[in-house]
Amino acid sequence: MNAPQKITFERASTTGPTPPDLAITVRDERFNRDDTPRRWWAGEPFGTAWHNALSATFPRGEAFFIEAVKAHREGADPKLDAEIRAFVKQEINHTREHIAFNKLAENAGYDIKAIDKRVEELLALTKDRPAIANLAVTMALEHYTAMMAHEFLANPQHFEDADPEVRAMWRWHAVEEIEHKGVAFDTWNHATRGWSKWQRWKVRSLVMLSVTGRFFKNRWIDSMGLLAQDGITGWKARWGLLKYLVVSPGVLRRIFPAWVAYFKPGFHPWDHDDRELIGLYEGEFQDALLPAE
C-alpha cells in the first residue's frame, strides 16, 4: 500500500459551499485478494446480493463518472481543477478494488456477466448524448453513493457481521465517496454557470427522478438474478430483499430524507458536513458510532 496522499483545497465560493479546508485523501488500498465466503454479508443472501449487484456496476460506472467530470474541467479555477484530479485518482482506485471484489464473487459461483453487459449497453446509449447530460447523471449518481456512504459509516449494523475484508473495502470506499461528494456538483455549477438558477434546478431534478427509477429497477433485477443463483426465487426473494432494503437495516428508508433534500432549490452536497465520519473511520470507529435501529 502506498502512503495516503492528502490534497487540501483553499476553496473560493464560486461553485458552492464546499468546505474551504476540505482534504481529499487518496488512499491507495488493496482488498479482497484472497477467498471470500459466498454469502459474505453476515452469511445472509439478501445483503450479499444487493452489494454484489452494486459492485458489479462500479467498474464501468466509475469510468463513466470520470469521463463525465473530466469533460467539463476546461476553464475551471485551479482549486476545482485540483479537486477533479483528486476525484479521478480516488475513482480509479475504487474501480480497481471492485474489479478484484467482483472476481471473488465470480469465484464464489456468482455469474455477474449479465449485470456488466446491461451496464455496458446502457452506457453505449450515452455516446451521442450531450456531455452536459452525462454530467447531470453523474451528479445524481454521486449523490446516491454519498448518501449510502454516509449511512454505511454512520450505522455499523450494515456491515458489522460481514466478512472483515469485505467490510474494510466498503468502509474505505464510503470514506472517499464522502470526501469527493461535491466534486461532480461543483463541476456542474462550473459547466452551467451561464444557466439560470431555475434551469439548473429543473434539469438536475428531472435527471434525478429519471436516474432514481432506472437505478432501483436495474439493481432490483440484478439482485433478483443473483438470489436466483442461490436458489431463492418468487415471493421469498422479493420479500427478503425488500425487508433488507426498507426494514432492517433499511438503507433505502434511511437515505430517503437525503434524497428529498436534493430537490431543494439551492441544494449542495456539502449542506451537510459529515466529515466527522471520516475521522471516526480513521480512529475508534466501532466504539464511537451509534448503532442502527
TrEMBL record:
Record has Hydrolase as a keyword: yes
Molecular function terms from GO: hydrolase activity
Pfam families for the chain: Metal_hydrol (PF10118)
Superkingdom of the source species: Bacteria
Keywords: Hydrolase
Signal sequence residues: none
Region annotation (Disordered) ranges: 1-23
Protein name: Metal-dependent hydrolase
